[in-house]
Specification:
The protein is of the alpha/beta class. The protein has a single domain, classed as DHBP synthase. Helices cover about 35% and strands about 20% of the residues. It has seven helices and eleven strands. The strands form two sheets. Strands 7-4-6-5-10-11 form a six-stranded mixed sheet, covered by helices on one side. A five-stranded mixed sheet has the order 1-9-2-3-8, with helices on both faces. A hairpin with a 6-residue loop joins strand 10 and strand 11. Helix 1 crosses helix 5 and helix 4 crosses helix 7. The longest helix has 14 residues. The radius of gyration is 16 Å and the shape is globular. The termini are far apart. The mean pLDDT is about 95.
């Protein structure tokens, strides 16, 4: 298994170009985020996304979350971006909040599982953001574990899960947080809590309430 050690505080662009090349060529890597380590592939590449389902042993009816480089890219991937999403994005992105939207028509249907929605976040991690910039495409961000297994917080734990089945593992040190991202759905314009995580329901409610009171 090939490891690529990257400085999490100041990612080496030249080293990350190797990881970006693997992704744009259809490969799958393990990489750090601001929460746990994820499996990264070009979200537009059906074969690469299929490989992730196979590696994780994940049911095809279950969606796969993705990360994007910035708010503008997110808006290109969804069919509708409500005002509430804009409030949350400006408060918590980059950061561990995944929002679920109705997916744009062109988006890879495999990512949606059995629905027509997509979960996206802008990560608060310098390695992830630089990788997104180099690739020029959104990346899958499902946790780098076998479905139902422990969330990995290091490159070594990713290797324990997948051995040489991945094309590369980026070693960015121990995860900043052992808690996965919070997931909320805005697919029907109202907010529904899907998964508790790094950002609490109370924090989300307070931000929305504060904005409403301003108006």
């Amino acid at each position: 298994m090939k490891f690529l050690k990257i400085n999490p505080a100041n990612p080496e662009n030249k080293l990350l170009q190797e990881a970006a090349y693997i992704i744009t060529s259809g490969g799958v890597i393990g990489y750090p985020t601001e929460t746990v380590y994820g499996l990264g592939a070009n979200a537009f590449n059906s074969s690469a996304v299929n490989k992730i389902y196979y590696l994780k042993g994940r049911g095809k009816n279950k969606p796969i979350l993705i990360i994007a480089s910035d708010l503008d890219q997110v808006k290109q991937l969804v069919s509708f971006f409500p005002e509430t999403a804009d409030i949350l994005a400006r408060s918590f992105w980059p950061g561990p909040l995944t929002m679920i939207f109705k997916a744009a028509d062109f988006l890879n249907k495999q990512l949606s599982g059995k629905g027509n929605t997509i979960g996206i976040r802008v990560p608060d991690n310098k390695i992830s953001l630089e990788l997104l910039r180099l690739c020029g495409v959104p990346l899958t961000s499902t946790s780098a574990n076998i479905s139902g297994g422990k969330n990995p917080i290091s490159a070594e734990e990713v290797a324990e899960n997948f051995g040489n089945k991945l094309d590369l593992i980026i070693d960015g040190g121990i995860s900043q947080s052992r808690t996965p991202s919070t997931v909320v759905s805005l697919a029907d314009e109202s907010i529904t809590m899907i998964r508790d995580g790094a950002i609490s329901k109370l924090e989300i409610e307070q931000v929305i309430r504060s904005k409403i009171n301003e108006n």
